[in-house]
Design goal:
mainly alpha; two-stranded antiparallel ribbon; 2 strands; 41% helix; globular
Amino acid sequence: SMGLIGNALSLYWQARGLAWLAGAMFAANGGRGVGTFVEFLPRTARPAEHTNWSALQSTCRMCQLEKHWRWPHLCLGAWTHVLGFVRAGMRRAFRASGTEAAVRSQLKRHDVAVHLRCFPFFTDVYPLAGFSFYT
């Protein structure tokens, strides 16, 4: 099931970011997302060469509430320090899983795909973005 996959990815990238900032090795245990692109995300990652104590402390200050650790995308946490890894890791997973090819096969030359977070559950937290947002 793809149920709450965005929330799970937030936890994954927050943990990757915390390990990176702490100069620690990252290793994921548990859920595999079998049959989805998630199974193609790295299960381990080497540590950064140096610990970034100031960014690690900033993450803890920015994510003080319990809900920030359950849903890391609600705060500017450790994941914001590894956006390059997020982009590269997600792109590799989409390609390796065949997800990218499957989506591209459905698009015409000038089509554009737009991701709508939490569709169809639009709320005041995740509203439907106006057309001007995309132009």
